[in-house]
Design goal:
287 residues; 48% strand; alpha+beta
């Protein structure tokens, strides 16, 4: 249940850096990264790392199958759910046998050795311990790792994903706190809490939440509010939603706002209130 495909989000943020923002030469301090361009670049790097963990670990290790990665393990018994959590992750990684998953009660230990993951992701090496708790209509999965290598990043920390179902709607409440280095080798610490829903009947996805990140010594916050996309896959145009990036320095907060306008365009509002509307490369949605 991705927010949008990585190419869509990256294109949005890259366009903001190169087209929508003008650097303030009077405040050119790479150590504090106070310009909006630096803020957007930091967010892009952090978002890519977090999304790699979501689609490369959270979804495959939830007991889903590769054709429906947002639909976690379900079953009539704990044993049935446990077996899906143990065996289904192997469907996502190549070559066969690069991932070994061992089960002990409600704990599954996943050991990666030279795995290639979904969406062309590479370099999965290390161990993730997955613990699950099952209740009627609810599945809580906790992933813990130390020094895990995932698509170029090295990550240690915990991610807790709570899945609930109501009719055809699956809700995913994800919280996490992790640290390590990005694929570019920069130190990063990240805390996040997001709620994502997906309705299989309408094919509508929503997401709200926030993340606090320190990367390369610079701290910032990302808030997503009212994001919605319907009737099409990850490359579809959002019908609504706002992303706010903000950084506070010496008591002053600088923010950049991205608004999805319900089609192939988005509006950017800079720290001083200036606005620009830019094209968004995406597929038209239904609804």
């Amino acid at each position: 249940m991705k927010l949008a495909n990585l190419a869509l989000v990256s294109a949005t943020l890259l366009a903001l850096v190169t087209v929508g923002c003008k650097k303030d030469d009077s405040d050119d301090d790479d150590d504090v990264g106070s310009t909006e361009a630096q803020l957007v670049a930091d967010d892009k790097e952090a978002a890519e790392t977090d999304e790699d963990l979501e689609v490369g670990l959270d979804e495959p290790l939830s007991g889903a199958v590769a054709t429906d990665p947002g639909n976690p393990a379900d079953g009539a018994s704990d044993d049935e759910v446990s077996e899906k959590l143990r065996t289904n992750p192997g469907l996502f990684f190549q070559p066969a046998g690069c991932l070994v998953s061992a089960r002990a009660g409600n704990v599954i230990t996943h050991t990666f050795t030279g795995c290639k993951g979904p969406y062309g992701m590479t370099e999965f090496n290390g161990t993730v311990t997955t613990t699950y708790a099952r209740e009627p209509g609810k599945l809580t999965i906790t992933h813990e790792a130390s020094g895990l290598k995932a698509n170029g990043a090295t990550i240690s920390g915990k991610r807790v994903v709570v899945y609930t179902r109501e009719g055809t709607v699956i809700s995913k409440n994800r919280t996490g706190s992790w640290s390590g280095t990005t694929a570019k080798g920069r130190p990063i610490t990240h805390e996040a809490s997001f709620v994502t829903t997906y309705d299989a009947s309408s094919r509508c996805l929503t997401r709200d939440g926030s993340a606090q990140t320190t990367i390369g010594g610079r701290s910032f916050e990302r808030t997503i509010d009212g994001f919605k996309r319907c009737g099409i896959g990850r490359g579809g145009c959002p019908s609504s939603g706002t992303i706010v990036l903000s950084r506070t320095r010496q008591g002053t907060t600088m923010s950049v706002t991205i608004e999805f306008l319900g089609g192939p365009s988005y509006r950017v509002t800079g720290p001083k209130g200036g606005q620009v509307t830019l094209p968004l490369v995406c597929l038209p949605t239904a609804g």
